Amino acid sequence: MRSRVPQVLGLTLVWVALWGVVSVKIVLGGLVVALAVTLLFPTPVLERLPFRPLAVLRLVGFLLVDLVLSGFAVGWEILRYGPRARSGIVAVPMLTRSGRVATMIAGALALAPGSFVLQLDQRRGVWYVYALGLAGPEDARKVRAQVLLLQQRVIDAFGHDDEIALCRATTAEVTR
To answer: Phi/psi zone of residue 125: left (φ > 0), alpha (ψ -120 to 50 degrees), beta?
Structure first.
């Protein structure tokens, strides 16, 4: 039950937020509801992901820069080509086997305008990424390199040590 404490506290916090009032009655009611939910609908306790603060700061900085640059690139593409803006789908090697890390990568990729994960083929280890502004193979290589760098940043921040080593080896091999 000790491993469920963060879950109970989180559900209690959501309960209090839903009521919009902090009182003893609301907090105790939230604790009762949270305990009932965790006992009646148990979820598996997941292994904690590593958290590296410096790598998270690098990831946040990378995402902020990518957000601004992508916004300008999409704006230019739309101003230049309008409804005939060029786009395509790029296959990118997947550098993680962790579902939670892959979800973070997909979410981070969706933050920037002009690209998102269209499909994730875990069996083959391939992301299929839709990208705006693809005129040829060189643009596809740039998108692939950008997605690989994003994956590496997320894995550096939240991946296990063996995953980081595999990520760096694969990135070096793919970008050669």
So the answer is: left
Secondary-structure breakdown of the chain: helix, strand, coil percentages, each rounded to the nearest 5:
65, 10, 20
Strand order in 87-93's β-sheet?
87-93, 126-132, 115-121
Per domain, the residue ranges of the chain are 2-40, 53-174
pTM over 0.85: no
**Using alpha carbons only, how large is the chain's radius of gyration in Å?**
21
Spell 41-67 as b/e; 16+ CB within 10 A means b. Answer: eeeeeeeeeeeeeebeeebeebbeebe
**What confidence tens digit (pLDDT) does each residue in 130-167 have?**
999 999 999 999 999 999 999 999 999 999 888 888 88
Q: Mapping DSSP to helix (H, G, I), strand (E, B) and coil, where does residue 87 land? A: strand
Task: Give the pair of three-digit tokens for residue 10.
Answer: 């989180």
Tokens 């939910």 correspond to 37
Residue 136 phi, psi dihedral angles, 5° rounding: -175, -170
Which residues are CB-contacts of 29 (< 8 A; sequence separation ≥ 6)? 15
| Structure tokens that stand for 62 in this block | 């990378």
The total number of residues written for the chain in this structure: 176
Tokens at 81, concatenated: 């080509």
Q: Could you give the 3-state DSSP secondary structure of residue 152? A: helix
Q: Locate tokens 């839709």: which residue? A: 130
